[in-house]
Known about the structure:
Layout: E1 4-10, H1 18-30, E2 34-40, H2 48-61
Parallel strand pairs: 1-2
Amino acid sequence: AGRRILMTAGRKDPICPAHLTSRLESYLRGAGADVDVAWHDGGHEIRTTEIEAARDFLSRYRDGS
């Protein structure tokens, strides 16, 4: 497995549209990364669900595994 990456994104993001986030996800996976994507229905703001996704992501790997 490659690098572990968490991406959080809004489906209505005017700055980084969803199709570009999906392209980046595909690119990173193609490069061997282990990518998690946490989508929300908003735009380019930070949502509580993204903070929760980051917490969960970090807690899975905090022991170095």
